[in-house]
Amino acid sequence: MAHHTSVLIIGAGQAASVLARELRSLGYTGSITLVGDETHLPYERPPLSKDVLKSTASSDSVFLQKAEFYQEQNIELLLSTTVQSLDCTTRQATLSNGQTWSFEHAVLATGGAARELALLPATQADALYLRTLDDALSLQARLQPGLRALVIGGGFMGLELASTASETGAQVTVIEANERLLARNAPALLSQWLLERFESQGITVRLGHGVRQAHFAAENEHPVQLELNDGHILSGDLAIVAAGLTANSALAHASGIAVDQMTAGIIVDRQGRTSLAGIYAAGDCTTQICPDTAARSRTESWQNANEQARQVAHAIAGLDAPVPPVSWFWTDVLGCNIQMLGQGSPDLDYQVRGVMDSQGEAITFMLLAFEGQYLRHAIAVNAGADLRALRSVMEQNVPVDPAIVLDPATKLRQYVKEAARAAHA
Q: Any idea where the Reductase C-terminal domain is (predicted)?
């Protein structure tokens, strides 16, 4: 039996659910179908490495919408199902349940998969990866006081996992091949502060050496042994791997949709259009290439998934593209909320607003990078209100006096208003 839908959304994660919701909020009346390979309703991923892992949130609390929402909005959910082939010329998709669906628009929101290390295969019972809700529940069941957890990866996910494991009472060691934490995403000032913060909380951090060999012996007291490049051997009960994400772009590639060779992301423009008319993509599976610099950007974040879904919804609905917001990212580690606003780059010079205390109980500071009078990147540690005050400075490119902004005594909200009025006078 043939089926038809106006919009076929391939994937049922953050971008997919937000896209469906946004289409309905824009007044789109065509039929919408989401196809996802998991058994769960679409859910948010950020809580998986934090509240879900600590058992402070139920698995149901991560769902983006309740089941009733999809029924009320006439959005069909096909869960535990995959799209096996996509014919972009005839506008037909073949599903794993044997159904064939025709469509007017297709959106690939296929997300990504945890990058697996050959030395630490996911088939090994004592090597765990975190990407899905089921992964989080499996890891949650293993974490307990006294467990020796070896976390491979010092990026955002690795630090979140190490933080959560430590909070559950585990003895944690972080292994990062780069010379500093968050080497690709944060300035050296923040990397050093994080190192001091982690070590002050009893977490061991091994920098500059990757894993050379891995041995698993269930009969040993500590069944995991990791040999680092410098010959040092670490023993533990569990290896938790956070080695990055790979884009799920195989379906796109097989369907003739352009995929970037460097990032493996589906190439899209600012409104999520792929190389084929009527086919869109959004979320972790996508790559944008700047037409001026050829710089590639494959952004794996909660905000990016939401924003790309919003852009695609407007394109499908035939509406003008909304103005994109300033890039924003957040994470929570060891009781500290860290937020980043704007785009960082290696050539920026960061200055500190406040005191970079790594051990106090009331930690709050900001790292700010200026180009002349213009704020280009801001990092806030337990200073979300001040970061929100600075958002309009970046959005409207308002000139400010760096010395005033960096002064902890300055009431940023009031100062930003005054600076904006002066700029528009």
A: 328-415
For residue 283, give both structure tokens. Answer: 């979320």
Q: What is the pLDDT of residue 271?
A: 95
The span from the CA of 366 to the CA of 190, in Å, is 10
Say how many C-beta atoms besides its own lie within 10 A of residue 354's C-beta: 18
pTM of the model: 0.95
Of the two residues 99 and 184, the one the predictor is more confident about is 99
380 bridge partner residues = 339, 366
Domain boundaries, the chain: 2-113+246-316, 116-241, 335-423
In contact, 126 and 27? CB cutoff 8 Å: no
CA distance 188 to 184: 10
pLDDT higher than 80, residue 331? yes
Res 282 pLDDT > 90: yes
| Cβ neighbours around 10 below 10 Å, total | 27
292 pLDDT higher than 80: no
CATH of domain 2-113+246-316: 3.50.50.60
Strand blocks (E) in 144-275: 148-152, 171-176, 204-207, 211-216, 224-228, 233-236, 238-241, 245-247, 266-268
Spatial distance between the Cα atoms of 410 and 413, rounded to a whole number of angstroms:
9
CATH fold of the domain at 335-423:
Enolase-like; domain 1 (3.30.390)
Measured distance CA(385)–CA(257) in Å, rounded: 42
Q: How far is CA 189 from CA 3, 72, 86, 196, 288, in A?
A: 55, 49, 47, 11, 29
CATH class for the region spanning 116-241: alpha beta
User: Given the structure tokens 């199902």, which residue do they identify?
Assistant: 81
Q: Give me the pLDDT at residue 274, please.
A: 97
Q: What is the pLDDT of residue 174?
A: 98
Question: Which token pair is 246?
Answer: 């790979």
CA atoms within 13 A on the CB side of 4: 4
DSSP letter assigned to residue 234: E
Q: Residues 192, 223: contact at Cβ < 8 Å?
A: no
For residue 201, which amino acid is it?
Q
Contact status, residue 205 vs residue 182, Cβ threshold 8 Å: no
d(CA 317, CA 319): 6
Pairing mode of beta strands 245-247, 112-114? antiparallel
Domains 2-113+246-316 and 116-241 share a fold: yes
- pLDDT in the model for residue 1: 66
Q: Name residue 416's amino acid.
A: V
